[in-house]
Amino acid sequence: MGTTTPYIDLVGIQSGQVTLSDRRTERSWTVDLAPFRLGALPVTQEQYAQVTGERPSTARGSEGGSERLPVETVSWRDAVLFCNSLSQQEELTPFYGFDGQGEVVVAEPSADGYRLPTEAEWEYACRAGTGGPRYGPLDDIAWYRGNSGERPHEPGGRLPNPWGLHDMLGNVWEWCWDLYDPEVYGTYRVLRGGGWFDEHWSCRASVRRRSHPTFRVDDVGFRVARSVSS
Description:
Blueprint: E1 10-13, E2 16-22, E3 27-33, E4 36-39, H1 45-52, H2 76-89, E5 96-98, E6 104-106, E7 114-115, H3 119-127, H4 138-141, E8 173-179, H5 182-185, E9 189-192, E10 208-211, E11 220-221, E12 225-227
Parallel strand pairs: 8-11
Antiparallel strand pairs: 1-4, 2-3, 4-12, 5-6, 7-12, 8-9, 9-10
């Protein structure tokens, strides 16, 4: 395990409502959201190593700069375990528990520890009150295939959205808590945001991707959230 608790900048997000949609099923649904807090940046390699003692990422930065790159090659389950470990290091109540088969279950809703954002929270925070497919010109706000040099970059190098969140689009895809479509895809979880290797059409606030909770690849990472106590 890591020995140093990293600093993670969390942005307060006010309550609101967001409408999500799925192109495959042509379905849309509206979600009411309570206030929450969300990481201003995706979790970095350095932060992940401080909490877990592990360095799973494929990307290596120039002149030793990989520590500041977003962590990737991490599964949904890895992200959940990171949240629990960070909560324990900060003496917070872990948000997630496990059943007798080792499957992840949600802890008490009142838990004050770190967690993954829900899909609705992610899209609401990404849009930040804007109405288009993106919160700004893509080259200004995101690292994607057109400008990334086909590699991830240090988070925070592009312009933030109106709520101060960086890299919500591009750089690395981000795991969300939700099941994608359990009737069709079983335990597959939602990914959002697009990554450094994606074309522009994947880097939009509404785009949904899915994968198995143990899937790891070099353009998938995550950012953390926390609930706000009532």
